[in-house]
Amino acid sequence: MMLIVGISIGSGAYGNNSLVDSVGMLRENELPPLSFCGETVPTQEQQVARRLMKALADHATRNRALYRLRIRAAGFFAAIEPILAHYQIPPDFKYLPLVESALRSRAVSPKGAMGYWQLMPATARELGLTTRVGRDERQDLQKSTNAACRYLRYLHDQLGSWTLVAAAYNMGIGNLLKNIRRQQETDYYYLKLNPETGHYLYRIVAFKELLTNYRAYDHLIDSETIAYLSSPLPGEEVDDPDADLLSETLAEEAVGPAGTTALALPALPDESRRKVDEMQLAKLSALVHNGLRAKLVEAGKVEVGQVWTFTLIRGVELEGIRFEEGDLLYALLEDVDVTNGRMYFRTRKVWSLKNRTLTSLPLIAVDVSTGESGIPLPDLEALKAGWIVTWKAL
């Protein structure tokens, strides 16, 4: 599938043929901070930025085809995400089949790889799949995804890096290890690999960014492509930025008259309790209506040290600093209290889409029912719906 898009950098516009030349003009911070499976993509390196830009250009075109791919991905991701989680495979690997097969079960490579995950016959059989004519389980979404996950888990046990796992999936672990030994280099971004594998991870990351974080590239991708990436999918309602912050009941209680709240408060005499209720409701109302709220873009593992990405759902001024809708928060998961079902996030910097800069501002995620740090662990359905978290400055 050949994809072409107009890319604008600075005040100039470039077609696909002049893309490589235009990438040389990239300014510092032209690209937002990026990661793959929690591993940082070093976009400060010009060669890395160049390859990522080319991958973005290659994917972000044939707008109708990209829109159809979004539709297929919505159903596909819902089916494979639980399988990835079962095998403890990072969710970023759900974008790998977009590169391998464009999510087509009957896709066949010149070398004989087939199916959503493009498994070779011998590899598929080793992973327990049937590959005979008339019954090729590489075309079965659930069975092939389980097999691919077993393979990805094996690769990670051998390599210890998810970035290298992606490279090995493309070129084979034997060939990758030969390159690592010969070059004495273990970082994918600095390894000199064959052209296909050398661009492979960038194509995966580009799909991830276009499908989840396209607004960070509105200065690089033409408006028509942005329109196709932002238009609602069939059956998908237009997002209401206020819908998921609080349940209707709690929202009414938080802004309603004193005495209607169901919040847990210490036992106090009636008059004192009424005053505490009023103070608490006033704080919560200010937090709900004036606080910094951000929707989940990319969930990491529920493990200490993991980075989760959020995007602001509206503009707000906090601590004298103006933040705009679409700005990004890169939050560190500092603690997980499984006993009480709570998690604790902190972020120190906010990525500004408008200024292309990182603004220093220590923030913590807070529970909107109490205003305190530590938020309830979300369930999978909440994450899929676009989990919204409220933040306050330290």
UniProtKB/TrEMBL annotation:
CDD domains listed in its UniProt record: MltD-like (cd16894)
InterPro entries: Lysozyme-like_dom_sf, Transglycosylase_SLT_dom_1
Family membership noted in the UniProt record: Belongs to the transglycosylase Slt family.
Domain Transglycosylase SLT, residue spans: 93-189
UniProt protein name: Lytic transglycosylase domain-containing protein
Domain of life: Bacteria
